[in-house]
Amino acid sequence: MPRRRLRDLSIIQNPPNSKETNSEQQTAIGSSNVPNTADEPTKIQTESGGRCKTRRRTLLKNLYNLNSVERVKDRERVGTTSRQKQKFTHTAGSKSFACVADDEELSSGQKVGHLQFFDITHRKKDRSPMTTEAAKIMEKLKDKRAEYEAITSRSFVSPTQYFGSSSQQYMHSTNQAQAKVQRLRDQMAQMQASTIKQIAQLKAEAASREAEAQRKYELQLQLKADVATREAEANRKYVELQLQLQNMMKMFQQSQNPPS
Fold first, then answer.
1. d(CA 209, CA 104)
2. Is residue 208 packed enough to be buried (19+ CB in 10 Å), middle (13-18) or exposed (0-12)?
3. Which end of the chain is more exposed for a tag (fewer CB within 10 A), N or C?
4. How far apart are CA 105 and CA 140, in angstroms?
5. Confidence (pTM)
């Protein structure tokens, strides 16, 4: 496996005139031993000229010089140390709590609560608690669950039942809003029906007026026709009377002048 090199880090070595030499800096590449750092703070200089101090830590260069086997061992040692520092260990392993909860829900077919999830992740394969602290917490949770079940099983009226819960209040306010919206919709429907009725009534009145006007117009036309007929009849009679009068005048003249 190729060795990685640090490009921007270089260890400041002791001056040439110093009597002490640092044997850690002469560690061969690919060595299987992790060099021990001195108790003194180690100074590291970067290419930009800055300096930083590290105390009691393995340098990155020394870690990169390790082979793959030693690197894995070092990681295992770090992981073991970090797990030992945990206050409460669990049996979830590398799985996340969400994955463990999903697997439990799929296997049992029920929703996993917080108390049940703590009980699942803090018991060994033989169903015994992992630590005494976990056992104490489980006992407390068991007592709390029993107390909660005892409270919920009582028949007296609880404050939530008397005053109403927030969800009930929310439902009540929602019902009020829905009732108000329904009232507004009913009012709008009534107004719309009244408007439609008024429009129909106005249309009927307009049609009635138009029919009345048409009837009057037709009556006027009929009256004009009657007047014209009467005038024609009067003219005819006048002409007839004129003719009769002329005939009578002729007859009278003939009677006055005897034939010679």
1. 83
2. exposed
3. C
4. 24
5. 0.27
